[in-house]
Design goal:
- By secondary structure, this protein is an alpha/beta fold.
- Helix content is 27%, strand content 32%.
- The protein has a seven-stranded mixed beta sheet. A two-stranded antiparallel ribbon has the order 2-3. Strands 7-13 form a two-stranded antiparallel sheet.
- InterPro entries: Mannose-1P_guanyltransferase, NTP_transferase_dom, Nucleotide-diphossugar_trans.
- This is NDP-sugar synthase.
Length: 237
């Protein structure tokens, strides 16, 4: 099985932690970088080949990860010379990839079964599979619905339930046909194109542990919780 890890972003929201380190290498706990945890999880799940898409401070990632032999994997790299969006780096890799593969952000902390995501993607026949997670937003204000300058409905401090993308995807190489390598391609653009073509993505619903280390408070929470969750996150590794 083959995985592509997207690790080329600048991690602007996580500054100052990412001033000198690429976001996937910020430490979790006392011993592990996020990217190391992800690679150990992928290896344990049976992935033997991984391509790491690098850009900002990419040489530090390359020096840290090496050829992947320390995790029993074959790791190669794709260099993003300019920002290409979430899916753009895959276009330049297309000929190096198998027909189905896993794509994920390099800053995800989760106990998701990556192999099962890819298996379910293959079984579904969908062009794209999106791992999803339930979120609830509490609105601290009374919400008004207005029409023609009149209040027609009112809800006091409602909650809204919705599902979000976890930043982990099963993807088919054929889904990337028709897009131009070297041009940016966002996840949002790809999903909207598939919906417009009436070829919708498959949703892989997950209710386990998931943190997207995108903001300082998420990062602080990950460090606070890692000691108690380490055996779960690195089981069998």
């Amino acid at each position: 099985m083959h995985a592509v890890i997207l690790a080329g972003g600048k991690g602007v929201r996580l500054r100052p932690y990412t001033t000198a380190l690429p976001k996937p290498l910020v430490p979790i706990g006392d011993q592990h970088a996020i990217l190391e945890i992800v690679l150990r999880q992928l290896s344990t799940a049976g992935f033997t080949h991984c391509t790491v898409a690098i850009g900002h401070l990419g040489e530090i990632i390359r020096a840290y990860v090496g050829d992947g032999s320390q995790w029993g994997m074959n790791i190669d790299y794709a260099v993003e010379e300019s920002p290409l969006g979430t899916m753009g780096p895959l276009l330049t890799l297309r000929e190096r990839l198998p027909e189905t593969f896993l794509v994920m952000n390099g800053d995800v902390l989760t106990d998701l079964d990556y192999a099962d995501v890819l298996d379910r993607h293959r079984e579904s026949g969908a062009p794209l599979t999106i791992a999803t997670y339930a979120r609830k937003v509490h609105i601290d204000f009374g919400v008004l619905t207005t029409r023609a300058s009149k209040v027609v409905a009112f809800t006091e401090k409602p909650s809204m339930d919705y599902r979000v993308s976890m930043g982990v995807y099963g993807l088919s190489r054929s889904t990337l046909e028709g897009y131009t390598p070297g041009l940016p391609l966002g996840f949002d653009e790809l999903v909207l194109d598939l919906l417009a073509a009436q070829d919708p993505p498959h949703a892989y619903e997950f209710d386990g542990y998931w943190l997207d280390i995108g903001r300082p408070d998420d990062y602080d929470r990950a460090n606070a919780e890692f000691t108690t969750r380490k055996s779960m996150l690195l089981k069998g590794a």
